[in-house]
Design goal:
319 residues, alpha/beta, Rossmann fold, six-stranded mixed β-sheet, 7 helices, disordered N terminus
Amino acid sequence: MKSQRINKIIALFAGAVLVMGAGRSMADAEPNDTVPVTMTVTASVANGRRMPQIGRDDVVVRQGKNRLEVTNWVPARGDRAGLELFILIDDRADARIGLQYDDLREFINAQPASTLVGVGYMRNASVQVAQNLTADHGLAAGALRLPLAAAGAYDSPYLSVAALMKSWPLDQNRREVVMITDGVGRERFHLGWHRGYRLDPDVDAAVATAQKTGTNIFTVYAPGAARYHRGYWNLLNGQTNMARLSDRTGGGSFYLGFHSPVSIRPYLAQLQTILDNQYLLSFSATSGKRSGFQPVGLCTEVAGVSLTSHDAVWVAVRK
């Protein structure tokens, strides 16, 4: 009798555990709240090909294994063409970057009326704004000056761009940054003795700020002044970290070796093509228990077209 009673107690306990486990599984299976997210996406095709029509139903957004609902897909044209473009020049850059200013001025002046252009100089983990965002493109082009060609006390182009983005008011316009720099961060103090690739943590800080503010970052390599202070690995790490920043923020990185390009005109022409083929994508992201970054994957079912965007988005908890 006693053993039968013990067996019944064990059976009842096991049943309660199964019920609790089933209830927890059902709760886990229930969909979480969704939060609307908007990001800028660039569509690209192979050289010489015509950009096909891309509709909302052609875009696939995934958060992990889950396909998310695309709520809006609008070309960045017409009344949605608004663009805020900041051009940042590293104040440590070699003064020979001034040879590229005619092409840069031409690029600025060629921007449509819907584009606001600002110019700033990166130094001491901040940005000295030479011209705030303005629709007067001639005024922005005239703000270009030669860099100081000297390092500051606390230089990191990644901390500088992060500082700019944090002080940049959010609105409905696209946000783009063009950084002209050698990409060398605070590790320059190693003076080249350290061999091997190093992940610059300041890049991660800039990526997080860009993804949270919806900013796309493009990087253009320009040699720094006093290059004898920068060893091979510092320069290689600089370019690699520049590329990592651009890849993770939906931008692009332009460089050719460690030398200054003969002309940045081809880079600017490619950048203009990118700006002319952007879309505003809105979708419903699944929020977690806390606000945070959620990795997203993006593709299209239109053959021959690739889409570039942030690799993660900030998803706030729905209150």
